[in-house]
Amino acid sequence: MSYNVQPLRSQTEIDDFLFWLRRTNHPERDTFLFIFGINNGLRMSDIVKLKVRDIKYEKRPIIVERKTGKRKVLYLDNLQDVIAEYIEGKDDDEWLFPSRQQGGHLKVNTVYKQYQKIADNLGRKDIGTHSLRKTFGYHYYRKTRDIATLMEIFNHSSEKVTKRYIGITTDEIGNTLADFRLGI
């Protein structure tokens, strides 16, 4: 079985996903996790392991990516109001995304299962935890057309890899061929 996770390409798709997140058992946490993820491009494995202190005191905190072991600056300037509201009253040592288990954080697989249920509700088979990272990349590129910076954010080695990763290549080819007709 091939599994090709895609970004949410429109505001409507994002709103539809948020609609279902607001109906989970933990809507505040689940909605914040989604908003946080689509606005910074982090992998889910890095998001779920954040503590309140990791994002509370700086607009640009530095974390170490789990997959690469590299230091990464999080650019959270755009989320300060949302972060402040979400962490209000939380202690520095608390997990940003706590699980039901005492003292634990959400697991990537738990988020994946939740997203699969939402995908089913939306009639989609192409949504997973990585959709957040891809959604960030897709919209960042659409807004800025700055593939070099996006490559840096994602730590990719080539434009081709980054464009394929966020699904831009297929979209661009389709758009350029939409009105392309010869001999008709």
TrEMBL record:
Keyword Zinc belongs to the record: no
Domain Tyr recombinase: 3-178
UniProt name for this protein: Integrase
Keywords: DNA recombination
Coiled coil: none
Organism placement in taxonomy: Bacteria, Bacillati, Bacillota, Bacilli, Lactobacillales
PROSITE patterns: TYR_RECOMBINASE
InterPro entries: DNA_brk_join_enz, Integrase-like_cat_sf, Integrase_catalytic, Tyrosine_recombinase_XerCD
MF annotations from Gene Ontology: DNA binding
Record GO biological process: DNA integration; DNA recombination
Domain of life: Bacteria
